[in-house]
Design brief:
Chain lengths: 155, 719
C-alpha cells in the first residue's frame, strides 16, 4: 500500500509522519502520535467518543482518513488545558458530574468546546441539539448539561 | 434538567471533586485500550457463522502463510480449557462443536490488526450444521438437542453444582412460603399475565481490551475486567497456572453496567503470548462484543396473583424462564441465574407465594450480568401486573400499591421478613413530591397524557473486602484493588478516610494497584462498593486512629504505620425507590414522549453527593433506553443490529426533566449509614413508562421496549 507524508499541527505541536493510505485519523492520533486521550467508541461515527477539531471543525476521528489532515491544525482533549490550567468547561465537568466512567468525556468536551465557540451562551435547545451526537451511557446527560451551563456562565 | 431535594445534608460539607477528574478531562486517564507495549502483536478471532454446528476440520495453513502472522492457534491447542465466573462451560476456543454465532474456533496474533483480521478470514473451517435451539421454550421441548452433554465434567467454583431436571437447564430455583392454594381459594379475583423482555446489551462505550504478556514466570494482564482478582482466579483455574504467577492490572473501566465481570479474550491471548513470546493485545469491535460476549437475559415471565375485594394480595405464583444463551459462564452467582431472578413481585406484602425461575441453554449469544441482573425483566412484569390489577378493580395504581407495599417485618417475595425502607414512607413521599393527586386529575386519555407509577426494590450490597491504609511522615495513602468503573469509588474512599480522620481531603491519596500489590478485592458489582469497600476504608481509618493512640502519636508525627481495613456485610437490608412519570402518546402514530419524571429514592447517608446524583440520573436514562428503544434483534441466532447506528441508545435530547427526592434519614449498613444506589434507579423505568402509556392512551404493551409500533398496534386493536 502507498504511504503518505503528513505534516500537521497536533495541539500546537508540529508533526511530520509517513502513514499508509488507509490510516484513519483515530489511529494516527492514538497509535502513531501516542495521543490516547481521544477514544474509540462505536467505530462508525455515531457515538462521538472520538470527536476532535480539525481546523476548528468538529469531526469523528474514526471516520476521517488520516491523509485528510495534511496541513491542518488538530485539537484533541489533550490540547484544551493551557499550562496545566483547566478550561472552565473542563472544571465544570468535574464539579457538575459531567462524567462518570470518562470514556466519552474527551469527545463531550471537544463537542462542547465547539458549541461554546459557536454559541457562547447556548439555550437549552441549542445544547441538546448540538450535543445529540455525543452518547454518554453513564450520566443521563444531566450533569453534562449542567457543566455546559456553568461553563457558559463563567465565560 | 433535574432537581434534587434532600432533607439532610452530606456528612462532608466540602464540595466533591473527583480524584480522577483532572485525568478524565485532560485525556490522561488510562484505559486498557490505551496501553501499548514494544513488540506488541494484535489478535483476531475466527468465529462461528452457525448457531450450532460440529467442527469437521480446521485448516490454518493459508493464515499462517500470511506475512506478519506470528501465531495461529485453534481449539486443538487449548482443549479442554473452558472458562467461566462460576461454571466453566465456555471453551477458550471450540474444538468439537460451536454453540452460537460468534463462538470462537481459532485465534491469530499478527504484527498489525489488519494482518490479524486478514489471516483470520483465511482460516478454513468446515462445519456440519446441527439443529439449533433459538428460543427458551425450545430448550426443554421433547427431542431438543442437548447442548452440553459433558456438563458433568465442567468445573463449578464453590461446591457442588445444584441438581437440574434437564441438561439444557443452566440454573433453576423454586421457593414457596405460606398457603398458596388457600390464598387463591379465598380470592375475590385472580389475575394472570405474561410479559416478554428481550435481550439488551450493556452498551458501555469503551471497547473491551486486553493485553497479555509473559514476564519470566509471570503472566501479566492489562484488562477492562472490573473484577481483576476474580479474573486472576478464573485464569488460574482455566489455564492451570498458580494465581501467584498471574498479575492482573485493570485501570479505569470505561463503563461496565454489569457486563465486564466476564472477559473472554485473556485466556486465548495467554496462549498466543506463549506461542510468540511477545505481548498480544485485543481490542474488540463493538459489533463483536454484542455478538460474542454476554448480554442481559431475555425473559418470559408469567405472574398470577390473587387479591381480595380491596385489592390486597392474598397469594402470588410466578414462572420465569430466562434465555441463558450458549454458556452460563457470565453468571457469578451459585444458582446460575441472574442475581434477582426470583424477585417477581418485590416490595409487596405476600402472605403466600410460589416462585419458579429457570435459566436455559440456547444457541444464542451467552447472557450474563447487566445492571441489576434480573430486575428490569421482573420489575417490568410485576409493576405492569400491579397496574393491570388496579385498573380492573377500579383502584388508583398508587393506592393499590399503598395497600400492599411492605413495611418492616412484613413477609415479602423472599418468604422472609422485610428489612429496609418503610414502603408507606416511600409512597407518601412519592405522592407528595410528584404532586400526584393534583396531576392525576389533570392527565388522562382525553388529552393523550398520562401518569405511570412504578415501585422498585434493591438489596444493599453484600460481601467482603479489605484495603490497606498507610501513614508515612504525615502522608496518608489508601491502597485498593478497586478499579473504578465510573461510580466514583476512589473519591468515596478519600471522603470516608478524610472524614473519619478529620483531615482535609487532599491529604488522603488513593492508589489503585494490580493484584500482586493489594489484598484481594471482590471487584465492582452487586451494589457493593459503597457499603462494603467503603466500610473497609472506614475500618482502615478507625484502625489507624487506634494504632496512633497505642503509639501515642498523631497524624502529623514522624510515623510509619500500616493497617488493613476489613469489612464484611452479610445483612439483608434493602432499599426502595419509586417513580411517577408522565408520558404523552400520539394516538395517530403511537409515538411516546416521556415528560417530567419524579424519582424518590431511599439512599441513606450521602457521602458523594455529585456521584450519587449521577448514578440516579444515569440509572434513570439507562432504564429509559430499555423502556423505549433497546432490543437486540435476533434472526436465526444472529444479532441483526449489533452497532450503535442500529441499536439506539438515549441521547441528550431523550432525557426528560427529572426531579429527584432523596430519603436520607434512615441509615443503612454502609459507612456512616450509607446504602447503595448504582442499581437502584434503572429497573422500574420500563414499567413506569408502560403504565403511563396506558394511562395516556389505553394502550397496554406487554413486551419491552414500549415502541411506537407496539403502542399503535395496541391502539388499533382497541378501535
Amino acid at each position: 500500500m502507498s504511504t503518505h507524508r503528513l505534516r500537521f499541527k497536533l495541539n500546537g505541536a508540529d508533526r511530520d509522519l509517513e502513514v499508509p493510505a488507509d490510516r484513519l485519523l483515530i489511529d494516527l492520533l492514538r497509535e502513531d502520535c501516542g495521543a490516547t486521550g481521544t477514544k474509540l467508541g462505536c467505530g462508525i461515527g455515531v457515538c462521538g467518543a472520538c470527536s476532535v477539531l480539525v481546523d476548528g471543525e468538529l469531526v469523528s476521528a474514526c471516520l476521517v482518513p488520516a491523509v485528510f489532515v495534511d496541513a491542518t491544525a488538530i485539537v484533541t482533549v489533550e490540547g484544551l488545558a493551557r499550562d496545566g490550567a483547566l478550561t472552565p468547561l473542563q472544571d465544570s465537568f468535574i464539579r457538575e458530574g459531567g462524567f462518570q466512567c470518562g470514556i466519552c468525556t474527551p469527545g463531550q468536551l471537544i463537542a462542547a468546546t465547539a458549541l461554546l465557540g459557536e454559541h457562547p451562551r447556548p439555550t437549552r435547545d441549542e445544547v441538546r441539539s448540538w450535543m445529540m451526537g455525543n452518547i454518554c451511557r453513564c450520566t443521563g446527560y444531566y450533569g453534562i448539561e449542567r457543566a455546559i451551563d456553568r461553563a457558559a456562565g463563567a465565560r | 434538567m433535574t432537581t434534587v431535594a434532600a432533607r439532610s445534608s452530606s456528612i462532608l460539607t466540602e464540595p466533591e471533586y473527583r480524584i480522577e477528574g483532572r485525568d478524565k478531562v485532560t485525556g490522561a486517564a488510562r484505559y486498557a485500550a490505551d496501553v501499548a507495549m514494544p513488540g506488541m502483536l494484535h489478535a483476531a478471532f475466527v468465529t462461528s457463522p452457525f448457531p450450532h454446528a460440529r467442527i469437521v476440520s480446521v485448516d490454518a495453513s493459508a493464515a499462517r502463510a500470511v506475512s506478519g502472522v506470528r501465531a495461529v492457534i485453534t481449539g486443538a491447542d487449548t482443549r479442554p480449557a473452558r472458562f467461566g465466573r462460576r461454571l466453566q462451560d465456555w471453551p477458550v476456543l471450540c474444538w468439537e462443536r460451536v454453540l452460537f454465532i460468534g463462538d470462537r474456533v481459532a485465534a491469530v496474533a499478527a504484527d498489525t490488526p489488519a494482518i490479524a483480521d486478514e489471516a483470520a478470514r483465511l482460516v478454513v473451517v468446515e462445519y456440519e450444521e446441527l439443529p439449533a435451539i433459538l428460543d427458551s421454550a425450545a430448550a426443554l421441548a421433547e427431542g431438543a438437542p442437548i447442548l452440553h452433554p459433558d456438563s458433568a465434567t465442567y468445573a463449578y467454583a464453590g461446591g457442588a453444582r445444584p441438581e437440574r431436571s434437564h441438561q439444557n437447564i443452566q440454573g433453576h430455583g423454586v421457593r414457596e412460603h405460606g398457603d398458596v392454594e388457600a390464598g387463591f381459594r379465598a380470592a375475590h379475583r385472580v389475575y394472570e399475565h405474561t410479559f416478554v423482555v428481550p435481550r439488551v446489551h450493556q452498551a458501555y462505550l469503551e471497547p473491551r481490551a486486553s493485553l497479555v504478556w509473559l514476564d519470566g514466570e509471570r503472566v501479566r494482564v492489562v484488562t477492562t475486567n472490573k473484577a481483576p482478582f476474580a479474573l486472576r482466579e478464573h485464569m488460574s483455574a482455566s489455564l492451570g497456572i498458580p494465581e501467584a504467577r498471574i498479575v492482573v492490572d485493570a485501570g479505569h473501566i470505561g463503563g461496565d453496567f454489569g457486563g465486564k465481570g466476564l472477559t473472554p479474550d485473556e485466556f486465548a491471548l495467554y496462549h498466543l503470548a506463549r506461542a510468540t513470546g511477545r505481548p498480544v493485545r485485543s481490542v474488540m469491535r463493538f459489533a463483536d462484543d454484542v455478538q460474542g460476549t454476554n448480554t442481559r437475559h431475555a425473559a418470559t415471565i408469567t405472574l398470577r396473583t390473587a387479591v381480595d375485594r380491596d385489592g390486597r394480595i392474598l397469594a402470588h405464583t410466578s414462572r420465569v424462564v430466562f434465555d441463558g444463551g450458549a454458556y452460563a459462564a457470565g453468571k457469578p452467582v451459585a444458582t446460575l441465574m441472574p442475581g434477582d431472578a426470583m424477585l417477581t413481585l418485590a416490595g409487596y406484602r405476600l402472605p403466600a407465594a410460589r416462585v419458579e425461575a429457570t435459566t436455559v441453554y440456547t444457541n444464542q449469544v451467552p447472557a450474563g450480568h447487566s445492571r441489576a441482573p434480573g430486575q428490569p425483566q421482573n420489575s417490568f412484569a410485576a409493576e405492569s401486573h400491579m397496574d393491570l390489577i388496579a385498573r380492573d378493580l377500579g383502584i388508583d395504581p398508587l393506592d393499590l400499591r399503598e395497600r400492599n407495599v411492605v413495611r418492616s417485618g412484613d413477609i415479602d417475595i423472599t418468604g422472609s421478613a422485610w428489612h429496609g425502607t418503610d414502603g408507606h414512607v416511600l409512597l407518601a413521599r412519592l405522592r407528595a413530591a410528584s404532586r400526584y393527586d393534583v396531576r392525576r386529575k389533570q392527565t388522562d386519555e382525553t388529552d393523550g397524557t398520562g401518569l405511570g407509577v412504578a415501585l422498585g426494590v434493591r438489596h444493599v450490597g453484600r460481601g467482603r473486602a479489605s484495603t490497606v491504609l498507610r501513614l508515612e511522615n504525615g502522608t496518608l495513602e489508601l491502597h485498593t484493588g478497586v478499579s473504578d468503573q465510573g461510580g466514583g469509588a476512589h473519591t468515596l474512599f478519600q471522603r470516608i478516610v478524610a472524614s473519619e480522620l478529620g483531615v482535609p481531603l487532599d491529604r488522603v491519596r488513593v492508589v489503585r494497584e494490580a493484584t500482586d500489590a493489594v489484598p484481594s478485592d471482590p471487584g465492582v458489582g452487586g451494589s457493593r462498593v459503597t457499603p462494603v469497600q467503603g466500610s473497609a476504608a472506614l475500618d482502615a481509618a478507625r484502625k489507624l486512629k487506634a494504632r496512633l493512640t497505642e503509639v501515642g502519636g498523631s497524624l502529623d508525627g514522624d510515623h510509619r504505620l500500616e493497617v488493613t481495613g476489613e469489612a464484611s456485610q452479610e445483612g439483608h437490608e434493602s432499599s426502595m425507590y419509586g417513580y411517577v412519570l408522565e408520558a404523552a402518546v400520539d394516538v395517530e402514530t403511537g409515538v411516546v414522549k416521556v415528560g417530567r419524571a419524579t424519582l424518590v429514592a431511599d439512599v441513606g447517608t450521602v457521602i458523594n453527593p455529585v456521584a450519587l446524583r449521577g448514578q440516579l440520573e444515569g440509572g434513570f436514562v439507562f432504564g429509559l433506553g430499555q423502556a423505549l428503544m433497546e432490543e437486540l434483534l435476533m434472526e436465526d441466532g444472529r444479532v441483526t443490529n449489533p452497532n450503535l447506528g442500529d441499536y439506539k441508545l438515549p441521547t441528550i435530547a431523550d432525557a426528560p426533566p427529572l426531579d429527584i427526592e432523596l430519603i436520607t434519614e434512615h441509615p443503612g449498613p454502609g459507612p456512616f449509614g450509607a446504602k447503595s444506589v448504582g442499581e437502584l434507579a434503572n429497573p422500574a423505568v420500563g414499567p413506569a413508562v408502560a403504565n403511563a402509556v396506558e394511562d395516556a392512551s389505553g394502550a397496554r404493551v406487554m413486551t419491552m421496549p414500549v415502541t411506537a409500533e407496539k403502542v399503535w398496534a395496541a391502539l388499533s386493536a382497541r378501535r
